[in-house]
């Protein structure tokens, strides 16, 4: 479930951006990687504790996501989807190259309050790092639900995602709202990166996990925010059980086998709706 929560958080970033802008951001996993490296730098270079470094990483990546949309991605609005996909893939390569130049290619790690912590309950053994990932995912999902449900900015984001032109006519600054959505998506990626760091360690290739998160987004329904998290958990559980009970080589491909099955049986995903456009 902890692995699935990480997939779900990265998938959440995919879905947030897609719902608002109909862009598929294949650099989402690399934003997670950058967030983990920023937290590492805050701890290792600035001497901050884990919680302050966590906050710095989230705020820095939120600002980075806002500027990324305002300076680059906003310029390709209205272009063919293929151009947008290639741009985000190119940005992912750029982020990995920049991270390798700044931090090198060595694997990094940092201590957390949950490292090496273990509890037993009812015959079950709980790793504190895994529990922190699950708890962090639950808290973040609750915060996002409250934000989109009860704040003016959150309601404006929903309006812009449903009908950009109508939202613009109602006085909503759609371009600024889109940049804020990219900021939230990058901040969510940073949370996933910091939570994942004690488990998978930090290196420039950890962003490739975004491919499995993409599978989670497709499984849950690409336009469904709850579906992204649930899809991530399902992918994580399937992956772990396939590694335990099937051939070890199947563990890495289990997520993609699930994607193929879902696309064949239910193309809109578990919680998605079939969209129709009049041409």
Sum this structure up briefly.
By secondary structure, this protein is mainly alpha-helical. Helices cover 69% and strands 3% of the residues.
Which features does this protein show?
11 helices; single chain; mainly alpha
Residues in helices, as a percent range: 55-70%
Distance between the termini: 42 Å
Question: What ranges have pLDDT less than 50 throughout 5 or more consecutive residues?
Answer: none
SS elements, strand count? 2
Largest sheet: 2 strands, antiparallel
Q: Number of helical segments?
A: 11
- State mean pLDDT (0 to 100 scale): 86
The spatial strand order of the largest sheet comes to 1-2
Strand proportion = under 5%
SSE pattern, N- to C-terminal:
HHHHEEHHHHHHH
> Which value, in Å, is the CA radius of gyration?
19 Å
Structural class designation? mainly alpha
Number of domains: 1
The quaternary organization reads as single chain
Morphology call: globular
Topology:
Elements: H1 2-21, H2 28-44, H3 50-71, H4 81-103, E1 118-121, E2 124-127, H5 128-150, H6 152-162, H7 164-169, H8 174-200, H9 210-220, H10 225-245, H11 254-265
Helix pairs in contact: 1-5, 1-8, 1-9, 1-10, 2-3, 2-4, 2-8, 3-8, 5-6, 5-8, 6-8, 9-10, 9-11
